[in-house]
# Entry
Amino acid sequence: MNLDSYRYDGSRRFRIASVSTDETSQAESKEQAEEVLKENDKALDELQQKLYAEKKEGLIILFQAMDAAGKDGTIAHVLNCLSPHGVYEAAFKAPTSIELSHDYLWRISARVPAKGEIAIFNRSQYEDVLIGRVRKLYEGQAHADRIDLDKVIEHRYEDICGFEEYLYRNSVRTVKIFLHVSKEEQAQRFLDRIKEPEKNWKFSAGDVEERQYWDAYMDAFQDAINATATEHCPWYVVPADHKWYMRYVVSEIILHTLQEMNPQYPTVTKDRMKQFSDLKEQLEAEIKDRKKK
# Structure
């Protein structure tokens, strides 16, 4: 798959109003995409095992989206196709009082993966420039008198870029995925949650209330992506109206990233091979003696 149309690395501007939420241009059909997904799952599992064994680089796969875009389902699929060794989800909800008593990146730093690990961020530091911006949450948070509230969001863009570059320079990559769903499709999914008993638990009246801020959120996503898309830590804007296509594209993004990282199983030194040979002889002799008895 050619991911260039979905990738934003600072070399071009992202204009949210001109980006489709429902195109499926890089799949011949849903069936074809699902077949590719199965093959990708095998390749992802092998690459992740190599990453875990090599322990040279960590990876953050970060998801942001409006409610009902399909974040949880997509993350569940990613987790399902990977080995549980060295892979975990970090979900960032409304900050607790303890988290609010620290800098806003404090809770993020605590979940950064070790080398060899993959962390899947369900929401992230970007909450502070998305809902934090739309609802102006920073105005009610404790801060020093010298803080200029008119520049808080601008400074947070700078902080985030610096943080992600710092991680990159310390062997942790960040890949950021925005699942771009339309307002109409979101409404339909909310209706499904009301109508279908098994989905009732997902529904919250607050989700519908947030729809009044839709345009403000679209502006916030557009500005955040343009301010923080870099070559080392790119954004991918994935059309999310068709869940099967969204998961197909996400699979391709993660596969491309791991292939670019190119992890390898560690090579065994000659001394270690000699040790293996000696231990092999010892174990074979032990088994032979036991058979004699």
